[in-house]
Amino acid sequence: MSVVRFGVSLEKELLNALDKFVIQNQYTNRSQAIRHLINKNLVSDKWKTDNVVAGSITLVYDHHKRDLSNKLTRLQHDYHDVILSLQHFHLEHDLCMEIIAVKGKASRLSVLADKLTAVKGIQHGQLTMSVAD
Ligand code: NI
Q: Mean of the per-residue pLDDT values for the chain?
């Protein structure tokens, strides 16, 4: 991929903030940091559309909560067309973490993540996005 240079005008405060960001995240230079920020934003935009994207849904919950496991399984079967695989970790005696790898229309993945996170007893639920096409 060819690289194009272009000039950017920034307020001094914003430039200071960028330099701080570069140091904190150990980027090689400002260009790398800006590239990362732009990519991240564009991917977020894509997430709102009907483009096909890949990502993961992380859930943390207590499996002892009544009917919780059944509800999660039922939902996952309803959305089997976008679920690639899932991994279950027994974190502690009362705590489970599930990571579900998903690929499909961004809007459908968002709905699935919302439904899973809304199940009573889920302590934490998060959809992470990346790009598939
Ligand atoms: Ni478990």
A: 89
Q: Separation of 100 CA from ligand 1 center, angstroms?
A: 14
Give the model confidence (pLDDT) of 93-105 as tens digits. 999 999 999 999 9
The architecture of the domain spanning 52-131 is: 2-Layer Sandwich (3.30)
Domain ranges for the chain, please list them: 12-48, 52-131
* Separation of CA 64 and ligand 1 centre (Å): 9
CA of 123 to the centre of ligand 1 (A): 14
Residues with CB under 5 A from ligand 1 (ion): 90, 96
pLDDT at 112 over 90: yes
**3-class SS string, 58-123:** EEEECCCCCCHHHHHHHHHHHCHHHEEEEEEEEEECCEEEEEEEEEEEHHHHHHHHHHHHHCCCEE
Q: What is the pLDDT of residue 47?
A: 63
